[in-house]
Design goal:
- The chain is an alpha+beta fold and 873 residues long.
- The protein is built from 27 helices and 23 strands.
- The strands form 3 sheets. Strands 1, 2, 3, 4, 5, 6, 7, 8, 9, 10, 11 and 14 form a 12-stranded mixed sheet that branches.
- The longest helix has 54 residues.
């Protein structure tokens, strides 16, 4: 009953505490669900973007004997059902049904030569779902095989096949043509139709890329290109495809449905794939065994490494948010206890026990917090995402922290029946034990930061989870910074007070004196504002560092705004078309290749280019190229070729190059190994001509426009803007950046709430002091300035300490937080200072503090001086 009476008497404070508990519970219960959902979506998007040949499970078998030949569809389906039954329990729900998605069965020959031709190869393929995947643009689909007289006069199978439309021109074949395949054990094919893929961009075709295109292969030392195409044949022809006669591979592709997978399944899936692989390997037929072909474990491992880094960063920022949220709730509890203090003091003075006083106050706090925590948890169920243990622990932690603080605070405050003191007149000196403990905490925090910088982590986060050392160092640094701020901020104020005492104005002296003699609860706002500012600055700096490094990675990968490369010489007419293209400012030609170093088997990569012209294409970028000057043929070489002086190389001709410098990498081309850079005229100096196969382009033109103007099918066009967009739009990167923004905003709100509550807590004492001073002639404007001077030092010094800690955390945690997975595999070398967020936050805190001071003064001015003075007597 007493609790309800007290709740009605202090309804405003109870309501504020309940709302804060609701918001904190919603954050700590909803954030893990939202993040887990984002992690799952990122993994699914990443797997869906990968080629199906990497994510699907493909069981392959290469028959070598006629007995191993599968002569019909039934034999394939029997094997398919057997493999599906052998799938581990973790994989069965994630493998699509037969005929769904990219799953299918196939039989293919490879390296099948056309009889009498040295450079033409026609492979045979049967796809179980070819009728759903291709359109017949002419002729008809293949039918049953017949026979025809072979080169040796004996009957050989004649298979009806479908030809790719691209192969009509590139292979010189058409409907009605007959070709004999093989150098022995011949088989004949007859083209009865021409097909094209219904959807060439379908992930399905990554399993059958040989069917989709004619492949041109340059064999070492050969002047003419080898031409490879794959034709489609019918189910009735399966019996004529046998491993004894030609190189044949059977495949059963089981489509992996990434939409059903989650990040919590990564370890189980990896183990299941390994178990299925062992089981498949033990399956034998004749003299050969089956194999499992998939890159799914590697993809999962790569994503898990990125996920571990994301979880580390999210743990740091969300942990800081949780600490700040609980701190604000504790501050609100302090406000409620301040309001309850007269009533509880009266109960204690009239004979109430300490347990009675403590339980009454604690029950009121629980009454305010518990409904808010439950409501926050209930609202968190609206957030999409799987439920983890943290979803339940968060609201419980909020309730326990608030009630525990209330119980301990009341027990310490009311241990004696009368506990009134004048904290504004004299402050107690800390004991030697307390000072020693605080020095120890600061020393341990600095030692931990140093060890983290010097030795890094002792565990692999991706395999063994979060390193406790990494997670404890930020907490220790925050506590240390708060202790240093609390202990040190009165001393500079006292110096300023002494200077103000010499002046003629009373307001600065009184305001700064009250700030220097602040009551002990000033520690709570400091312990809240400091981590709030530190984590928000840390989040801003990390986000800025990721953005900057992503841009650097894109420039390093491409090496120019637009780069064109071709495995062969670019036609001069095509290069001229690019030069005349609207939006092209500069085109720098280059020639790349592979050269012989000396006269042995040593090889090196080489690029011949005008470095000065190349640098002009990089204006405004973070890249700077070295200069290359000197007589003869100067060269910049990699570290693996350093120290050799003059080297003779074999490229289009023999030439001697003079080493003029050592470089670590060539942007867009070489990052490791043996390589060198020579002038564009190097081949001319060697007695041959320059064969341009690379273009470096600057201007506002797009990569697609360059590709259309170039009109060279095999040319590869890369754009720095496109590469940067691919890096930035990675699903997991988007999750991290969005979370950092949300956390920064939430921390800013909590920091502002902390300032408001701090103003309200000290309002009564401040109002009494101002009322006394009003009897001595203090004006309203002076009262406002007095309030601002009283609260500003704490906010300003805490903001500076939080800013310094936030800027230092990325450097301290650098070895433990590898963000290269989100920056194109380029390590974040430095974190640039972005003052916008901390400046905006500090300005907001100052504005709220000043506004609160003015509002408080206006309210105090309406109160009767007589009533205020009598209350304090």
């Amino acid at each position: 009953m007493k609790t309800l009476v007290l709740a009605r008497a202090h309804l405003a404070a109870v309501a504020v505490l309940g709302l804060l508990a609701l918001s904190a519970s919603l954050l700590v219960a909803g954030a893990p669900r939202a993040l887990q959902q984002a992690y799952d979506q990122a993994m699914r998007s990443g797997l869906a973007a990968a080629p199906a040949v990497q994510t699907d499970l493909a069981v392959r078998f290469q028959p070598y004997a006629a007995a191993d030949t599968l002569s019909g569809l039934d034999a394939f389906e029997i094997r398919d059902r057997g493999f599906r039954e052998d799938l581990p329990a973790q994989l069965k729900p994630l493998v699509s049904a037969p005929g769904v998605g990219t799953g299918h069965m196939s039989a293919k020959t490879f390296d099948t030569p056309v009889t009498g031709s040295r450079h033409d190869f026609v492979n045979l393929a049967w796809l179980s779902d070819a009728d759903k995947r291709v359109d017949w643009v002419s002729g008809s689909a293949p039918g049953a095989p017949t026979s025809v007289k072979g080169p040796e006069g004996k009957p050989i199978p004649l298979l009806e096949v479908g030809l790719l439309d691209e192969a009509v021109t590139k292979m010189g074949m058409k409907v009605g043509d007959v070709r004999t395949l093989g150098n022995s054990d011949h088989v004949a094919i007859k083209v009865v139709g021409v097909f094209r893929a219904k959807d060439p961009a379908d992930r399905y075709w990554s399993h059958n890329a040989d069917v989709l295109h004619v492949n041109l292969v340059q064999q070492p030392g050969a002047a003419e290109l080898d031409r490879y195409t794959t034709v489609l044949t019918s189910t009735e022809s399966l019996g004529s495809l046998n491993g004894k006669a030609r190189r044949l591979v059977y495949s059963w592709v089981f489509a992996f449905d990434a939409t059903r997978a989650g990040t919590t399944d990564i370890e189980a899936l990896t183990g299941a794939v390994a178990g299925f692989k062992r089981l498949v390997t033990l399956t034998a037929s004749g003299y050969t065994t089956f194999t499992l072909d998939t890159r799914l474990p590697e993809l999962l491992a790569a994503f898990n490494a990125k996920l571990a880094t994301a979880q580390t960063v999210m743990f740091l920022v969300l942990g800081g948010l949780l600490v700040v949220g609980i701190g604000v709730i504790v501050l609100a509890v302090q406000l409620l206890l301040e309001r309850l203090d007269p009533a509880l003091t009266l109960i204690r003075a009239r004979g109430g026990s300490l347990r009675q006083v403590s339980s009454t106050g604690t029950a009121l706090v629980a009454l305010a917090v518990a409904p808010g925590a439950l409501a926050g948890f209930a609202l968190s169920t609206l957030v999409a995402g799987p439920v983890s243990l943290f979803v339940y622990l968060g609201p419980v932690l909020v309730l326990l922290a608030s009630t525990a603080f209330a119980a301990v605070r009341l027990a310490l405050t009311h241990v004696a029946p009368l506990h009134e003191r004048r904290g504004d007149v004299a402050t107690a000196r800390p004991s030697a034990k307390r000072i020693t403990l605080e020095v120890l905490v600061v020393g341990l925090a600095l030692t931990g930061a140093y060890l983290l910088r010097s030795r890094g982590l002792t565990t692999s986060v991706a395999r063994q989870g979060q390193d406790p050392f990494l997670l404890l160092v930020p907490v220790a640094l925050t506590v240390a910074a708060a202790l240093v701020t609390l202990r040190c901020y009165p001393y500079p104020l006292r110096l300023i007070v002494r200077a103000a005492a010499r002046g003629r104005l009373a307001v600065p002296f009184l305001g700064l004196t009250r700030a220097a003699r602040a009551r002990s609860f000033t520690a709570l706002p400091v312990l809240i504002l400091l981590p709030a500012l530190a984590v928000s600055v840390f989040a801003s700096v990390v986000s800025s560092g990721i953005t900057t490094t992503q841009e650097l990675a894109a420039w390093r990968k491409v090496g120019a705004p637009i780069k064109v490369t071709l495995d062969g010489e670019l036609p001069a007419a095509a290069v001229e078309k690019v030069r005349r293209l609207a939006g092209v400012d500069l085109v720098v030609p280059a020639q790349t290749g592979r050269v012989q170093v000396g006269f042995g088997g040593e090889r090196a990569q080489i690029i011949a280019v005008d470095l000065a012209a190349w640098q002009r294409t990089l204006d405004g970028s973070p890249l700077t190229l070295p200069s290359l000057t000197g007589s003869g043929i100067p060269a910049l070489v990699s570290k693996d070729l350093a120290g050799r002086g003059t080297m003779e190389i074999g490229w289009q001709s023999r030439m001697k190059v003079e080493t003029r410098g050592v470089i670590d990498a060539v942007p867009g081309f070489f990052t490791s190994g043996k390589f060198m850079v020579v002038p564009l005229s190097a081949n001319q100096a060697g007695g041959t001509r320059v064969q341009v196969n690379t273009l470096l382009i600057a201007g506002s033109v797009s990569g697609d426009a360059v590709a259309r103007a170039l009109a060279v099918p095999r040319a590869v066009v890369e754009s720095q803007a496109t590469v940067l967009a691919d890096i930035q739009h990675d699903p997991l990167t988007d999750t991290i950046r969005t979370t950092l923004v949300v956390v920064t905003v939430a921390l800013a709100v909590y920091a502002l709430i902390a300032v408001i509550i701090a103003l309200v807590i000290s309002a009564a004492d401040r109002g009494r002091a101002v009322s006394f001073l009003r009897t001595l002639g203090l004006s309203a404007g002076q009262a406002q300035r007095l309030t601002v001077l009283e609260i500003s030092p704490m906010i300003v010094l805490t903001a500076l300490a939080g800013l310094a800690l936030g800027l230092g955390l990325p450097a301290a945690l650098g070895p433990g937080v590898d963000l290269s997975s989100y920056t194109g595999d380029v390590a974040v070398g430095s974190y640039d200072l972005d003052l916008f967020t901390p400046t905006l936050l500090a300005a907001g805190l100052t504005a709220v503090a000043v506004g609160g001071a003015y509002v408080h003064t206006a309210i105090s001015r309406r109160r009767s001086l007589g009533s205020v003075l009598r209350v304090g007597d």
